Amino acid sequence: MQPVTHMSLERLKKIIVLLTDIDDTLTENGLLPAASLVAIERVEQAGIAVIPVTGRPAGWCDHIARMWPVAAVVGENGAFYFSYDRCRRKMRQCFAKNEQERGRDRERLELLRTRIVSEVPGAGIASDQDYRIADLAIDFREDVDPLPEEEIKQIVRIFEENGATAKISSIHVNGWFGTYDKLSMTRICLRDLLGIDIERDNEKIGYVGDSPNDSPMFHCFENSIGVANVADFVVDSPPKWITNRRCSGGFVEFAELLLTAQAS
User: Fold this and answer.
1) Alpha helix segments (H runs only) across the chain
2) CB neighbourhood size of 261 (10 A)
3) Other Cβ atoms closer than 10 A to 31
4) pTM, whole model, 2 decimals?
5) Strands across the sheet containing 73-75
């Protein structure tokens, strides 16, 4: 990983879409600082589309799409994207699976919910679970005492043994049935809303993240940036660049570089 300050002006000026994780990338210690929202707003005003890509639930994502200065939001690790048309006052929704498929998955996840809590002492159901459409989020450090690494791996094993996909974020293990992920839905979102092809237009896209579930995004984008706390994890495909500051401070650091390049 190279320091983000080594990114060339020419590289930065080509970016017209900024994708970003939320937890421990836009936030810090569970809070969303004003500086993060100001940075998003300034980047949007500079003509760069900002799209959060998160494991957070549909209920949160509806709020984010409506009330944050963003072009869209990809949620539940790629289960959907939401984009709010403020002129027409209409929410556009695109799902990786149809309603019937999501209903069947929900029943299977309920069985896993009971099993995981029973077999992994200290694991909890994420406090935002009731607002989710497509996945099951197991809390291992947000509202519960941090679990040891072996217990986190056990949660992943239970999901995978039952045919589910499992990804570890900085606070949750998210499990779902399906082959979609953050990258697959981001590809659809950019194509539908902006006419951008990830392969063809890769140099026009930046991605900022912090944890192992960002690996597909880090691997895909040549302008992939990890905030400094990404170094706390072993990431299969690490980002190409890294900020000096942690969490939200790292996001703001990169946004400032991007804005300086655009202004030039």
Assistant:
1) 9-13, 34-45, 58-67, 99-119, 149-161, 182-194, 215-220, 247-263
2) 18
3) 10
4) 0.92
5) 73-75, 80-85, 90-95
* Number of other residues whose CB lies within 10 A of the CB of residue 199: 7
Question: In this structure, is the dihedral angle defined by the CA atoms of residues 100, 138, 40 and 225, taken in order, positive or negative?
Answer: negative
DSSP 147: P
Number of helical H runs and strand E runs in the chain:
8, 13
At 250, the amino acid letter reads G
CA atoms of 129 and 180, how far apart (whole Å)? 19
Q: Which residues lie closer than 8 Å to 242 by C-beta, 6 or more apart?
A: 1, 2, 3, 4, 225, 226, 227, 228, 230, 231
Which tokens belong to 100?
């019937």
R_g (Cα) of the chain, nearest Å: 18
Question: What one-letter code names the amino acid at 31?
Answer: L
**Could you report the per-residue pLDDT of 137-172, keeping only the tens digit for each?**
999 999 999 999 999 999 999 999 999 999 998 899
